[in-house]
């Protein structure tokens, strides 16, 4: 689906979306009330839970659009507070949405961080590389960056998200980079590099290197496409990574090449990632499993310099992310997951080995999975 031009989005879509979102939010509240009548049949109260959460999200969208229109009118008076006002809106909106998801659908976060004393980039810019899967993972990631780690996110997103007016306006004003993910944008890496060069103190460049939300069917289609193109090495890596898609290195390499990155956060999560279809999410409500987040910290000094070595470094870290996810799933299923994770890392490591004369590749992440 194509994205309409800026003028159509601002002067046609946005004014129509606000009353539509408000009306749908009221309908959501009514559906939630009616859903309570079905409690004897649906004791998990999925209808009222989902309807109320949708109503809250639509209300937040409408409020954001109106508030940002007000900020646009007041921009001359705001001066240097323009960005701070939008960051406050984003921070408060995400806090409300996460709190609502916690109360209504049982969202619980369990965050595992590197050992104390191993994370120190001062206020230098940070590159955040996160896997992408399951419902709401990107919202939770930006919420954590803002409200837990006090980093200003500069996000790389798929351009279709510009069809969401609140995301389009708010993240656009905060320097987000909206890109096509079908490989047709020849300037995508250059735009990411430009965004990285402009990073300031306390900021984080957020990239989802997989380029799309992971699903088993998307992984199978990707493997088939890679084989059809004769990209046997990449197809082999994709086959070994059963919980993530192989990372696309171009944007990551462009960001690192600027020399602005003080450290890299590599983010994995598990628990809700297996719910890839709306029906699966619906049947899982309210969530029983927590959303487990695990991240690793790599100082810039520990990231290799040559481009080929950086590609291998990224692939190795993504193999560890894959192994960690497999371990969490195995623990949840009550089986020993150590073997599968070790095999996946070893297989990808073997596929990523440099030939003789190439610069050495790191053997694992800074904070390996224990």
From TrEMBL:
UniProt keyword list: Acyltransferase, Membrane, Transferase, Transmembrane, Transmembrane helix
Phospholipid/glycerol acyltransferase domain sequence ranges: 123-222
Region (Disordered): 348-370
Listed Pro residues bias regions: 357-370
Keyword Acyltransferase included in the entry's annotation: yes
GO molecular function: acyltransferase activity
Annotated transmembrane regions: 16-38, 50-73
Entry annotated with the keyword Acyltransferase: yes
Name recorded for this polypeptide: Acyltransferase
Gene source species: Frankia torreyi
């Amino acid at each position: 689906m194509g994205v309409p031009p800026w003028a159509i989005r601002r002067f046609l879509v946005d004014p129509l979306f606000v009353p539509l979102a408000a009306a749908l939010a009221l309908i959501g509240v009514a559906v939630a009330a009616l859903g309570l009548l079905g409690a004897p049949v649906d004791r998990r109260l999925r209808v009222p839970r989902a309807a109320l959460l949708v109503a809250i999200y639509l209300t937040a969208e409408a409020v954001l659009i109106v508030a940002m229109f007000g900020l646009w009118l007041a921009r001359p008076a705001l001066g240097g507070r323009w960005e701070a006002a939008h960051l406050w809106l984003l921070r408060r909106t995400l806090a409300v949405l996460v709190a609502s998801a916690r109360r209504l659908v049982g969202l619980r976060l369990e965050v595992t961080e590197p050992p104390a004393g191993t994370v120190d980039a001062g206020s230098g810019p940070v590159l955040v590389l996160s896997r992408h899967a399951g419902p709401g993972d990107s919202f939770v990631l930006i919420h954590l960056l803002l409200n837990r780690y006090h980093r200003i996110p500069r996000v790389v997103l798929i351009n279709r998200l510009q069809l969401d007016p609140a995301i389009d306006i708010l993240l656009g004003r905060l320097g987000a980079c909206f890109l096509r993910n079908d490989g047709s944008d020849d300037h995508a890496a250059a735009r990411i590099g430009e965004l990285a060069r402009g990073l300031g103190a306390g900021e984080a460049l957020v990239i989802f290197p997989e380029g799309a939300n992971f699903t088993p069917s998307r992984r199978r289609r990707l493997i088939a496409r890679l084989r059809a193109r004769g990209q046997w090495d990449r197809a082999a890596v994709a086959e070994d990574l059963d919980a993530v898609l192989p990372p696309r290195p171009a944007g990551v390499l462009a960001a690192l090449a600027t020399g602005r990155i003080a450290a890299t956060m590599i983010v994995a999560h598990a628990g809700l990632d297996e719910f890839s279809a709306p029906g699966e999410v619906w049947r899982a409500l309210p969530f029983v499993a927590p959303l487990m987040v695990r991240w690793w910290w790599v100082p810039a000094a520990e990231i290799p310099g040559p481009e080929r070595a950086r590609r291998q470094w990224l692939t190795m870290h993504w193999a560890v992310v894959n192994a960690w996810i497999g371990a969490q799933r195995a623990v949840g299923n009550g089986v020993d997951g150590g073997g599968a994770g070790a095999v996946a890392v070893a297989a990808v490591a073997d596929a990523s080995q440099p030939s003789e004369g190439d610069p050495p590749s790191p053997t694992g992440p800074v904070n390996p999975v224990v």
